[in-house]
Amino acid sequence: MKKNKFPKGWDEKKVQGVIAHYEMQTEEEALTEDEAAYEDRTQTFIEIPVQLVSAVRELIAKYQSLHGIKKTADNMV
């Protein structure tokens, strides 16, 4: 069996916690969370082709590294 690889700072417990959060969330709570994300003026949502996702993630990681932005669950790439 292949061992799971987690992003830096993540482990099985943290992943299970995120899964539990979303599985136990009501539809109203999910909607409120989604609406809050769209109201955040420091970020934007864009549609990109699936083939470009890896390249965009790399660009974000380089930007974060150059600007000393610590990676968190909220901005994990």
Q: Kindly report how far apart the N and C termini lie.
A: 26 Å
Helix content: 40-55%
Output the radius of gyration. 15 Å
Quick check: average pLDDT? 87
Count of distinct structural domains = 2
**Low-pLDDT windows of residues:** none
Could you tell me the strand content as a percent range?
A: under 5%
| Overall morphology | extended
The count of β-strands is 0
Can I get a quick summary?
Helices cover 52% and strands 0% of the residues. The chain is built from three helices and no strands.
Question: Can you describe what's shown?
Answer:
- With 77 residues, the chain is mostly helical.
- The longest helix is centred in the last third of the chain and has 14 residues, at 53-66.
- The mean pLDDT is 87.
- The chain folds into two domains: 9-42, no CATH class; 46-77.
- The protein is built from three helices and no strands.
- The chain is 52% helix and 0% strand.
- The chain has helices at residues 12-24, 27-39, 53-66.
Supply database-style keywords.
single chain, 77 residues, mainly alpha, 52% helix, 0% strand, extended
Fold blueprint:
Layout: H1 12-24, H2 27-39, H3 53-66
